[in-house]
Design brief:
With about 60 residues, the protein is an all-alpha fold. It contains 2 helices and no strands.
C-alpha cells in the first residue's frame, strides 16, 4: 500500500516527503478537531475516582 502511494505522488523524493507530511498533518487536524469531538458526544465515560481505604495506608517498617 505504501509503495503504491509513493509511486503515485509526483516529483522527486523530497517533494513526496513534503506532500506526505502535509497529508499526515491534515488527517491529524481533521481527527483532533472534527472526528474526536463528534465521537465524544456518543461516548459517555463514567466518572471514576480511585481512593485508598483508610485501613490500607502504608505503615513504617522500622523496628
Amino acid at each position: 500500500m505504501y509503495a503504491g502511494l509513493w509511486r503515485i505522488l509526483p516529483g522527486p523524493w523530497w517533494v513526496r516527503v513534503l506532500i506526505l507530511l502535509v497529508l499526515i498533518a491534515a488527517v491529524l487536524y481533521g481527527l483532533l478537531f472534527y472526528a474526536f469531538p463528534w465521537v465524544s458526544q456518543f461516548v459517555n465515560p463514567q466518572e471514576v475516582t480511585v481512593t485508598l481505604p483508610a485501613a490500607s495506608t502504608p505503615t513504617s517498617l522500622s523496628s
